[in-house]
Amino acid sequence: MFKNLEQMTPEEQSAYFRALLKEVRNIALLAMVILTFYSSCYRPHRIPSGSMIPTLMVGDYILVNNFAYGLRFPFSGKYLSGPKKVERGDVIVFDYPPKPNFRYIKRVVALPGESVRIENNIVFINDEPIEQSILDELIDKEYIEPRYLEANLQQFEIQTGEASHLLQLARPAIRDQHFSEITLGDDEYFVMGDNRDFSSDSRDWGPIKFSDIRGKALWVWFSFVGPLSDEGDMRVKWNRIGTRIE
What we know:
Shape: elongated
Number of domains: 2
Low-confidence stretches: none
CATH superfamily of the largest domain: Umud Fragment, subunit A
Number of strands: 15
Protein backbone atom coordinates (compact mmCIF):
# COMPACT_ATOMS: atom_id res chain seq x y z
CA MET A 1 0.00 0.00 0.00
CA PHE A 2 1.36 3.37 -0.98
CA LYS A 3 1.81 5.99 1.73
CA ASN A 4 0.55 9.56 1.63
CA LEU A 5 3.65 11.49 0.58
CA GLU A 6 2.17 14.81 1.65
CA GLN A 7 2.26 13.72 5.28
CA MET A 8 5.96 12.76 5.15
CA THR A 9 8.98 14.86 5.92
CA PRO A 10 11.58 15.24 3.15
CA GLU A 11 13.79 12.69 4.93
CA GLU A 12 10.90 10.19 5.14
CA GLN A 13 10.07 10.73 1.47
CA SER A 14 13.68 10.10 0.48
CA ALA A 15 13.81 6.90 2.58
CA TYR A 16 10.47 5.78 1.16
CA PHE A 17 11.59 6.21 -2.46
CA ARG A 18 14.85 4.36 -1.74
CA ALA A 19 12.89 1.44 -0.29
CA LEU A 20 10.44 1.52 -3.22
CA LEU A 21 13.29 1.55 -5.73
CA LYS A 22 14.88 -1.42 -3.96
CA GLU A 23 11.61 -3.40 -4.20
CA VAL A 24 11.24 -2.57 -7.89
CA ARG A 25 14.84 -3.68 -8.48
CA ASN A 26 14.23 -6.96 -6.62
CA ILE A 27 11.07 -7.64 -8.60
CA ALA A 28 12.85 -6.88 -11.89
CA LEU A 29 15.70 -9.22 -10.92
CA LEU A 30 13.27 -11.99 -10.03
CA ALA A 31 11.42 -11.50 -13.32
CA MET A 32 14.72 -11.70 -15.22
CA VAL A 33 15.68 -14.95 -13.46
CA ILE A 34 12.27 -16.48 -14.21
CA LEU A 35 12.35 -15.40 -17.86
CA THR A 36 15.90 -16.70 -18.26
CA PHE A 37 14.90 -20.07 -16.77
CA TYR A 38 11.78 -20.10 -18.94
CA SER A 39 13.78 -19.36 -22.08
CA SER A 40 16.87 -21.50 -21.48
CA CYS A 41 15.80 -24.44 -19.32
CA TYR A 42 12.41 -26.05 -19.00
CA ARG A 43 9.26 -24.86 -20.69
CA PRO A 44 5.66 -26.12 -20.59
CA HIS A 45 3.71 -26.79 -23.78
CA ARG A 46 0.14 -27.86 -24.49
CA ILE A 47 -0.65 -30.45 -27.16
CA PRO A 48 -3.41 -28.95 -29.35
CA SER A 49 -3.66 -31.62 -32.07
CA GLY A 50 -3.66 -35.38 -32.49
CA SER A 51 -0.59 -35.73 -34.72
CA MET A 52 1.38 -37.54 -31.98
CA ILE A 53 -1.34 -39.94 -30.78
CA PRO A 54 -0.88 -42.42 -29.11
CA THR A 55 2.34 -41.04 -27.56
CA LEU A 56 0.73 -37.67 -26.83
CA MET A 57 -2.99 -36.97 -26.54
CA VAL A 58 -4.92 -33.81 -27.29
CA GLY A 59 -5.00 -31.85 -24.02
CA ASP A 60 -1.69 -33.17 -22.67
CA TYR A 61 0.51 -30.57 -20.99
CA ILE A 62 4.15 -31.50 -21.38
CA LEU A 63 7.48 -30.30 -20.03
CA VAL A 64 10.21 -29.65 -22.59
CA ASN A 65 13.92 -29.58 -21.76
CA ASN A 66 15.24 -26.55 -23.64
CA PHE A 67 18.88 -27.41 -22.95
CA ALA A 68 18.72 -31.11 -23.90
CA TYR A 69 20.97 -30.37 -26.87
CA GLY A 70 23.07 -27.64 -25.32
CA LEU A 71 22.60 -24.57 -23.16
CA ARG A 72 21.25 -21.67 -25.21
CA PHE A 73 21.90 -18.02 -24.61
CA PRO A 74 18.52 -16.63 -23.38
CA PHE A 75 16.11 -15.42 -26.07
CA SER A 76 18.37 -16.48 -28.94
CA GLY A 77 19.32 -19.55 -30.92
CA LYS A 78 23.00 -19.35 -29.96
CA TYR A 79 24.54 -22.01 -27.72
CA LEU A 80 26.63 -21.38 -24.62
CA SER A 81 27.58 -25.06 -24.43
CA GLY A 82 27.21 -28.03 -26.75
CA PRO A 83 25.47 -28.58 -29.02
CA LYS A 84 24.72 -32.17 -28.05
CA LYS A 85 23.74 -34.97 -30.38
CA VAL A 86 20.10 -35.50 -31.34
CA GLU A 87 19.18 -39.19 -31.11
CA ARG A 88 16.87 -41.15 -33.37
CA GLY A 89 13.53 -41.56 -31.62
CA ASP A 90 13.74 -38.28 -29.67
CA VAL A 91 10.44 -36.40 -29.43
CA ILE A 92 11.39 -32.80 -30.13
CA VAL A 93 9.82 -29.34 -30.21
CA PHE A 94 11.00 -27.19 -33.13
CA ASP A 95 10.19 -24.16 -35.24
CA TYR A 96 7.70 -25.07 -37.96
CA PRO A 97 9.70 -24.43 -41.18
CA PRO A 98 6.94 -22.70 -43.20
CA LYS A 99 6.08 -20.46 -40.20
CA PRO A 100 9.01 -20.25 -37.73
CA ASN A 101 6.87 -18.47 -35.13
CA PHE A 102 4.88 -21.68 -34.65
CA ARG A 103 6.13 -24.61 -32.56
CA TYR A 104 5.62 -28.21 -33.72
CA ILE A 105 6.34 -31.49 -31.94
CA LYS A 106 7.34 -34.66 -33.79
CA ARG A 107 9.61 -37.68 -33.50
CA VAL A 108 13.08 -37.82 -35.05
CA VAL A 109 13.11 -40.71 -37.53
CA ALA A 110 16.26 -40.15 -39.60
CA LEU A 111 19.55 -38.40 -38.83
CA PRO A 112 22.02 -36.28 -40.84
CA GLY A 113 23.63 -38.11 -43.77
CA GLU A 114 21.10 -40.96 -43.77
CA SER A 115 18.82 -41.93 -46.64
CA VAL A 116 15.13 -42.34 -45.84
CA ARG A 117 12.16 -43.59 -47.81
CA ILE A 118 8.73 -45.06 -47.07
CA GLU A 119 7.16 -48.08 -48.75
CA ASN A 120 3.68 -49.28 -47.71
CA ASN A 121 4.02 -47.25 -44.49
CA ILE A 122 7.31 -48.98 -43.63
CA VAL A 123 10.18 -46.56 -43.05
CA PHE A 124 13.55 -47.53 -44.54
CA ILE A 125 16.73 -45.96 -43.14
CA ASN A 126 19.78 -46.61 -45.33
CA ASP A 127 17.75 -49.37 -47.05
CA GLU A 128 17.03 -51.09 -43.69
CA PRO A 129 13.33 -51.31 -42.69
CA ILE A 130 12.17 -50.20 -39.24
CA GLU A 131 10.11 -53.17 -38.10
CA GLN A 132 6.70 -52.66 -36.51
CA SER A 133 4.41 -55.19 -34.83
CA ILE A 134 0.65 -54.73 -34.67
CA LEU A 135 -1.19 -54.55 -31.33
CA ASP A 136 -4.39 -56.51 -30.66
CA GLU A 137 -6.27 -53.43 -29.38
CA LEU A 138 -5.89 -49.66 -29.13
CA ILE A 139 -4.12 -48.13 -26.13
CA ASP A 140 -5.98 -45.28 -24.33
CA LYS A 141 -8.87 -45.60 -26.77
CA GLU A 142 -11.15 -43.64 -24.44
CA TYR A 143 -9.02 -40.51 -24.91
CA ILE A 144 -8.83 -40.64 -28.73
CA GLU A 145 -11.19 -38.23 -30.45
CA PRO A 146 -14.02 -39.81 -32.49
CA ARG A 147 -12.78 -38.30 -35.76
CA TYR A 148 -9.63 -40.40 -35.45
CA LEU A 149 -11.43 -43.56 -34.33
CA GLU A 150 -13.68 -43.35 -37.39
CA ALA A 151 -10.57 -44.01 -39.50
CA ASN A 152 -10.43 -47.64 -38.27
CA LEU A 153 -7.10 -47.13 -36.52
CA GLN A 154 -4.48 -49.78 -35.92
CA GLN A 155 -1.62 -49.29 -33.47
CA PHE A 156 1.86 -50.73 -33.81
CA GLU A 157 4.86 -51.10 -31.54
CA ILE A 158 8.04 -49.86 -33.16
CA GLN A 159 11.69 -49.48 -32.21
CA THR A 160 13.08 -46.12 -33.37
CA GLY A 161 16.67 -45.95 -32.20
CA GLU A 162 16.74 -46.54 -28.44
CA ALA A 163 13.06 -45.62 -28.13
CA SER A 164 10.36 -48.27 -28.10
CA HIS A 165 7.08 -46.52 -28.76
CA LEU A 166 3.68 -46.77 -30.44
CA LEU A 167 2.44 -45.41 -33.73
CA GLN A 168 -0.92 -45.69 -35.38
CA LEU A 169 -2.18 -45.96 -38.95
CA ALA A 170 -5.59 -45.71 -40.55
CA ARG A 171 -7.02 -48.68 -42.44
CA PRO A 172 -7.44 -48.09 -45.29
CA ALA A 173 -4.70 -45.49 -45.44
CA ILE A 174 -5.82 -41.88 -45.65
CA ARG A 175 -2.63 -40.47 -47.12
CA ASP A 176 0.04 -41.75 -49.49
CA GLN A 177 1.81 -44.77 -48.02
CA HIS A 178 4.99 -44.06 -49.99
CA PHE A 179 7.71 -41.43 -49.86
CA SER A 180 10.49 -41.26 -52.42
CA GLU A 181 13.99 -41.69 -51.06
CA ILE A 182 15.99 -38.64 -50.05
CA THR A 183 19.42 -38.30 -48.47
CA LEU A 184 19.64 -35.88 -45.57
CA GLY A 185 22.28 -33.17 -45.44
CA ASP A 186 24.88 -32.79 -42.70
CA ASP A 187 22.49 -30.65 -40.61
CA GLU A 188 19.12 -32.17 -41.47
CA TYR A 189 16.65 -34.35 -39.53
CA PHE A 190 13.60 -36.19 -40.85
CA VAL A 191 10.69 -35.98 -38.38
CA MET A 192 7.27 -37.64 -38.34
CA GLY A 193 4.19 -37.75 -36.15
CA ASP A 194 3.25 -41.02 -34.45
CA ASN A 195 -0.30 -40.60 -35.77
CA ARG A 196 0.99 -41.12 -39.28
CA ASP A 197 -2.18 -40.54 -41.31
CA PHE A 198 -3.02 -37.32 -39.44
CA SER A 199 0.39 -35.67 -39.24
CA SER A 200 1.94 -32.83 -41.22
CA ASP A 201 5.67 -33.51 -41.04
CA SER A 202 8.84 -33.95 -43.09
CA ARG A 203 6.87 -35.86 -45.70
CA ASP A 204 5.10 -32.57 -46.47
CA TRP A 205 7.63 -29.77 -45.87
CA GLY A 206 10.96 -31.58 -45.79
CA PRO A 207 13.68 -32.06 -43.16
CA ILE A 208 14.37 -29.62 -40.33
CA LYS A 209 17.75 -28.20 -39.30
CA PHE A 210 19.42 -28.37 -35.91
CA SER A 211 18.95 -24.62 -35.48
CA ASP A 212 15.16 -25.18 -35.70
CA ILE A 213 15.13 -27.46 -32.65
CA ARG A 214 13.98 -25.86 -29.40
CA GLY A 215 14.06 -28.79 -26.98
CA LYS A 216 13.25 -32.38 -26.12
CA ALA A 217 9.89 -33.47 -24.68
CA LEU A 218 10.29 -35.14 -21.27
CA TRP A 219 6.99 -36.04 -19.64
CA VAL A 220 3.30 -35.20 -19.26
CA TRP A 221 2.76 -33.06 -16.16
CA PHE A 222 -1.00 -32.56 -16.62
CA SER A 223 -3.69 -33.79 -18.98
CA PHE A 224 -7.27 -32.67 -19.50
CA VAL A 225 -9.84 -34.14 -21.85
CA GLY A 226 -12.41 -31.81 -23.40
CA PRO A 227 -15.94 -32.56 -24.56
CA LEU A 228 -15.53 -35.75 -26.58
CA SER A 229 -19.20 -36.73 -26.45
CA ASP A 230 -22.64 -35.20 -26.84
CA GLU A 231 -22.85 -35.09 -23.05
CA GLY A 232 -19.91 -32.71 -22.95
CA ASP A 233 -17.62 -35.10 -21.07
CA MET A 234 -14.79 -33.09 -19.50
CA ARG A 235 -12.32 -34.53 -16.99
CA VAL A 236 -8.72 -34.84 -15.91
CA LYS A 237 -6.85 -37.79 -17.44
CA TRP A 238 -5.23 -38.88 -14.19
CA ASN A 239 -3.51 -41.94 -15.64
CA ARG A 240 -1.54 -39.78 -18.09
CA ILE A 241 -0.09 -37.40 -15.50
CA GLY A 242 3.57 -38.23 -14.95
CA THR A 243 3.83 -40.23 -18.18
CA ARG A 244 7.38 -40.26 -19.51
CA ILE A 245 7.60 -39.40 -23.20
CA GLU A 246 9.55 -42.06 -25.05
